[in-house]
Design a protein that fits this description.
- Helices cover about 5% and strands about 55% of the residues.
- The strands form two sheets. It has a twelve-stranded antiparallel β-barrel. A two-stranded antiparallel sheet has the order 2-3.
- The protein has about 230 residues and is mainly beta.
- It has one helix and 14 strands.
- The two termini are about 30 Å apart.
């Protein structure tokens, strides 16, 4: 039954995204959704087949966005992320509130040792050929060190886009600099090696369907995944 509802939702979304949207005066709106065969995030296995919608607003250098993920498997964790960001030139800074339906599943519970929220700050710069981002958990349900202290879990990622064979490619190298249970590492570790390709499939003159596939490896955990997906957008 859940699968039927999701198929119906995707059909309705495809019809809606193929309709023209009213232009927003100086404000850009993002309405889209990904369907992925496997949800892998920063080299961590986060679920199987998943629908991942995005709703966002951007004005000049500022943006607000909501991103979610829900899996077809009943055991998959549901996720809702809210992000506020500022970008100018190649510089980027932002704060994200991650929420997962773990524990008692309450969204508006923020007690330090019981909340299902994680608050993360990030800063980065896009140099053109490569981009570098640094992320650190600053509050909420963070991981801990080997001594049981808050780890202020951090993650750094270097990405490099390129074009090859008619596709847009991106290579990524991600690492965790020090021990934390949030990424299940006992020290410095390379947790994300990724190669992803994207190609747009032209359905009509007004509607294209971006397809993507990626190969991900987590050397620290000795795991690897191959995923596929597509994006629905106006």
């Amino acid at each position: 039954m859940k699968t039927r509802r999701i198929i119906l939702l995707l059909t309705m979304a495809a019809m809606a995204f193929n309709m023209p949207m009213a232009a927003q005066d100086e404000v850009e709106t993002t309405v889209e959704a990904d369907l992925v065969s496997h949800y892998v995030w920063r080299g961590q296995d986060c679920g199987h087949v998943s629908i991942q919608p995005t709703l966002g607003l951007a004005y000049k250098s500022f943006s607000l966005s909501a991103w979610g993920s829900v899996g077809l498997d009943a055991d998959d964790t549901e996720e809702l992320d809210l992000t506020a960001a500022y970008e100018t030139g190649g510089f980027h800074v932002g704060i994200t509130d991650y929420w997962f339906n773990t524990g008692d599943g309450r969204y508006f519970a923020y007690a330090a040792h019981r909340t299902a929220h994680v608050f993360e700050a990030n800063v980065g710069y896009d140099f053109g050929p490569v981009a570098l981002q640094w992320y650190t958990n600053i509050a909420g349900n963070d991981g801990v060190t080997s001594r049981g202290k808050r780890a202020y879990s951090s993650y750094a990622e270097l990405t490099a886009p390129f074009r090859l064979g008619g596709c847009e490619w991106e290579a990524a190298l991600g690492l965790v600099p020090y021990a934390t249970t949030a990424y299940d590492v006992s020290g410095f570790a390379v947790t994300n090696l990724q190669l992803k390709a994207t190609k747009s499939l032209h359905i009509t003159d007004r509607f294209t369907l971006p397809l993507f596939a990626g190969l991900v490896a987590n050397p620290a955990a000795e795991k690897a995944w191959l995923f596929f997906g597509f994006t629905l957008r106006p």
